[in-house]
Amino acid sequence: MVDGTGRPPFRADVGVSGDRIVAVAPALSGPSATRVEAEGRVVAPGFIDLHSHSDLCFTLPFARQAELLQGRVRQGITTELLGNCGIGCVPLNERSRQDVARLCGFISPDDIAWHWGSLGSYLDLLDAQGVLLNVASLVAHGPARAATLGSRAGRPAAGEQDDLDRQVRCAVEEGAFGVSFGLIYPPGQFADTEELVAVARAAGAAGGFAAFHQRGSSRETLEPAVREIIEVGRRSGASVHHSHEETVGPRAWAGVEEVLQIEAQAVREGIDLTGDVIPYTAVCTTMLALYPPWSLDGGIEPFLERLRDPAQRERMKQEIASASPAWPPWEGDGRWTMNIARECGWDRIRLAHVDGARNKTHEHLSLAEIGRRTGRHPFDALSDLLLEEKGIATQLIFGISGDDRDDAHLLEFLREPRLAIVTDAWEIGKGFPHPGAYGAFPRWLGHYVRERRLLGLAEAVRRLTSLPAKRLGLKDRGIVREGFKADLVVFDQRTIADRATYRHPRLMPAGIDEVLINGRRIVAGGAYRPHPAGEVLRRGA
Length: 541
Prior knowledge:
By secondary structure, the chain is of the alpha/beta class. It is about 35% helix and about 15% strand. The longest helix has 16 residues, at about 160-175.
């Protein structure tokens, strides 16, 4: 038994009745409908993913949901947090519905109706259709801002700020666990620190926390971006959470130690600051993140019009080639938050998915390779592709806190006991998803814990279970304890491993025999048996 608290492993049986754990003790006996023999294996709490992007997958009919979430459940995830990175599908109104749907196109399966409005109505929809695993949600700042200001840059007027704060506060009151910010994506990248403080204060006043995809992770913006998160926590009084801590590009890798020192000092000062990290040196996101912020002012359609204009397109190309981020990025004429292509290089950025048949042959190629194939500069090859794809394309970016030859800096994040381990990955049935959608947690327990002995098993499991449960304020999940929900994982520590790779991202993990969600065996004897066993979790309920 590795019970999630961090205490050393111990031998015990677990008794489950209905959706609850009713006993944890040696040599339990008595009548039971099912007995699962786990001799020689580990029983642990179900894993909690604080950084999921499954929001839009959950709106699908159940049969499709079971297919797209299989990789998540089979790696032991029983609860996940939606609405991260300021990207989400709520709240919506008639002003914002189309823009938000277009901005989320890179992460959305086809044929979503987008017919809900508030976060409460979205959670009600999930309740009515049933969910495969437990889901909690943040309210994303991006759609809340779009519903108030549209997709434009600039500060909200006083009345607009009040309306934005009200939307966030209402969402938390309806069950959101807090608010998330995506400060490298439109429209969240247009918000200054004053706006963040006001919105975080509104979420905190209703009992939620504020999660941040930081504004910059390159050498120029890494330190001020981390300090901004802390400043928001200090001034708003809200608890703050640093999502997928990272340094982008080789020039920034050595900044990991400084980030951890800054955050440790903030915790000593009394800031309620937590964070998480993915166990990979590559991430997946929209291709729009490569372009300068001014080019995205107004949303997808204005961006595409600018790409069609030779003068504006040339300006983008020159800025990507030479522009350095400056702080604060919302001042001046189109300052960058982070110039990813310059930091990582065209050869470290791969096309992960597009919808159009003609461009499918470019999937999994680097932008440098696509440029060579088409006889174009990588920027022009990418821009032509985005015009054909109406702005919807996904990228894999390599060189995040290290690479496949040198992950020493990533290891500093992975060792940090304050940080939960997360996937930051999704599966929409297209292209090449990030392998974390199928293997992040087995990679953590197999590659980093068993093979590289980064830390002990009990502490490694705590980082997947009680640590994220505490951040969410879940009182009955994340620990194997009498009276807690029966979310359980049974795995073999000798064989647990990720099989998914960047070339073959949909390979299921090894070594996980059983996954119980609220007492239901969704993985049984290694076989996947999907059933809507999950619960829609609401803050405070």
